[in-house]
Shikimate kinase (Alteribacillus iranensis), 169 residues
Amino acid sequence: MDDNNLVLIGFMGVGKTTVGELLADRLQREFLDMDRVIEKETGRTIPDIFAAEGEVAFREIEKRITIDYCRNTKKNILSLGGGAYMQPEIREACLKECTVIFLDISWEQWLERMEELKEGRPLLQEKSLEEIQKLFDSRHDTYRHCTHHVLTDRTTPEEVTEIIMEKMS
Ligand SMILES: Nc1ncnc2c1ncn2[C@@H]1O[C@H](COP(=O)(O)OP(=O)(O)OP(=O)(O)O)[C@@H](O)[C@H]1O
Ligand SMILES: O=C(O)C1=C[C@@H](O)[C@@H](O)[C@H](O)C1
Ligand SMILES: [Mg+2]
């Protein structure tokens, strides 16, 4: 395996953080959740940034910090915010500098998790179910521009980790 960062992408709640931590253990690499990195670097929570400055301002901050970590760090496991990959500049930096793993999930399986996901995820609190499903569907084709695509339906985080290890071997 090379020294590239591994970048996990996919919709909110698909398991990027959970699987990212397991992968980091297996590979003896550091795990960085980019939502938490953004909060640390700005000194504010993501809900606070959304509330005070709005989504457009959040996306600019997200772009600057995510691209910096993609380009200027090595050997990390980076879990991207659920919407980060929709930004073309972030996508280009990830595909050029990193190995990108898309964690996919069906809408039906995702719905089963939705209630537990609402806390701390402002987009899920603001939007109707119909709007969330539209967002879910609209992002799918963009996430497919990746290095490895893993469907996680009825698969435990440990099994997902194993599938990723096999794909990269
Ligand atoms: N493969 C899985 N099977 C069942 N539950 C899972 C799986 N992966 C994650 N979960 C559960 O789903 C919830 C969301 O997982 P996690 O926080 O890892 O998602 P995420 O992709 O990092 O979300 P976000 O984009 O909002 O940061 C957690 O409660 C986690 O335990
Ligand atoms: O899917 C999204 O657009 C988001 C997902 C979260 O990870 C956070 O980055 C933020 O709440 C926006
Ligand atoms: Mg996460």
About this structure: The CA atoms of residues 60 and 164 lie 30 Å apart.
